């Protein structure tokens, strides 16, 4: 007889097997016609211009790391919920483990809130808005010609 963890392991293995089989069948059925356009960097119809190694604002990474940090820490609340949900354990111990689990969860969420307050106070969640750069026209066409064209087609 399998334990509950064995059943969960079987479901996980079945999920991986299902994903593998579906991907293998899709590979067998799909058309495979590579050409120059499909092998280019982008398939959006635009020609790739310039270097792909552009620098991003560091705020993207900081916000992503803060999100992952709090997301992973909230996963630790699930084992607490299973312990807190066991009425038999709470009943047999006279309610001690229930109050202990509740106090432990409140402390954990309090530490998370303290971390969020620290990150907020340091300004790591503030988004820096870039200053817009106005395009400059650096051509040999005189500005009066632009004005004349604009006047001609003004409605």
What can you see in these coordinates?
The chain has 155 residues and is an all-alpha fold. It has a single domain (4-127), classed as NADH:ubiquinone/plastoquinone oxidoreductase, chain 3 (Methane Monooxygenase Hydroxylase, Chain G, domain 1), CATH 1.20.58.1610. The protein contains six helices and no strands. Helix 3 runs antiparallel to helix 5. The longest helix has 27 residues, at 96-122. The protein is flat. The mean pLDDT is 79.
What can be said about this structure in brief?
The protein is mostly helical. The chain has helices at residues 4-29, 58-75, 77-84, 87-92, 96-122, 143-152. The chain has a single domain, classed as Methane Monooxygenase Hydroxylase, Chain G, domain 1 (Up-down Bundle), CATH 1.20.58.
Q: Specify Rg, calculated over alpha carbons.
A: 30 Å
What is the number of helices? 6
- Element order: H for helix, E for strand: HHHHHH
Shape: flat
**What is the distance, rounded to the nearest whole angstrom, between the alpha carbons of the first and last residues?**
83 Å
Percent in strands: under 5%
Biggest sheet: strands, sense, closure?
none
| Helix fraction bin | 55-70%
Q: Output the CATH topology.
A: Methane Monooxygenase Hydroxylase, Chain G, domain 1
């Amino acid at each position: 007889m399998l334990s509950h963890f064995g059943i969960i392991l079987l479901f996980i293995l079945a999920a991986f097997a299902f994903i593998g089989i579906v991907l293998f069948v899709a590979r067998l059925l799909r058309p495979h016609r590579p050409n120059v356009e499909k092998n280019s960097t982008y398939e959006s119809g635009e020609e790739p211009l310039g270097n792909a190694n552009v620098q991003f604002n560091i705020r993207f990474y900081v916000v992503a790391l803060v999100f992952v940090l709090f997301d992973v820490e909230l996963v630790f609340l699930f084992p607490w919920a299973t312990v807190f949900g066991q009425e038999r354990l709470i009943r047999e111990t006279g309610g001690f483990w229930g109050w202990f689990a509740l106090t432990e969860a409140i402390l954990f969420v309090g530490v998370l809130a303290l971390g969020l307050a620290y990150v907020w106070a340091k300004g790591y969640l503030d988004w820096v808005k870039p200053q817009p750069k106005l395009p400059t026209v650096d051509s040999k066409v005189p500005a009066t010609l632009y004005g004349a064209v604009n006047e001609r087609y003004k409605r």
